[in-house]
Amino acid sequence: MPQHWLDTLKELGPSAVGSGGALLWVKVQSGKLIRYMALFILGFFLGYFIGSYISSITTVPESVSCLIVGLFGVTLVEKVFENIEKSDLWALFVDVVKSRWSKR
């Protein structure tokens, strides 16, 4: 029997709201839509999975922990993106991708 869509919304909603709310305050330097989408999706997954874990080890309700982790997950992912771009690892990654998938 399929799960009711409201139950799914109740389960996924808090981390989505936390991630979407965090995007209002994050200053993305590149300003590209793909960057915002990646931040939202990664923050959403962090909020959903880690929020559920935090809820299981604490007495915080799952909806609250998913909201908070989704909110701070976007900021965490943005800082990881910034550090990758500042390091030489980003240039190395771009070179590998270009060499592998460029037309010969």
Question: Topology of this structure?
Answer:
Blueprint: H1 5-23, H2 33-57, H3 62-86, H4 88-101
Helix pairs in contact: 1-2, 1-3, 2-3
As an assembly, this protein is single chain
Number of domains: 1
Structural class: mainly alpha
Written as H for each helix and E for each strand, in order along the chain, the element string is HHHH
- Identify low-pLDDT runs: none
Helix content: over 70%
What about the largest sheet?
A: none
Query: Termini, distance in Å?
Result: 52 Å
Strand content: under 5%
Helical segment count: 4
The radius of gyration over CA amounts to: 17 Å
**Whole-number average pLDDT?**
78
Number of strands: 0
Shape: elongated
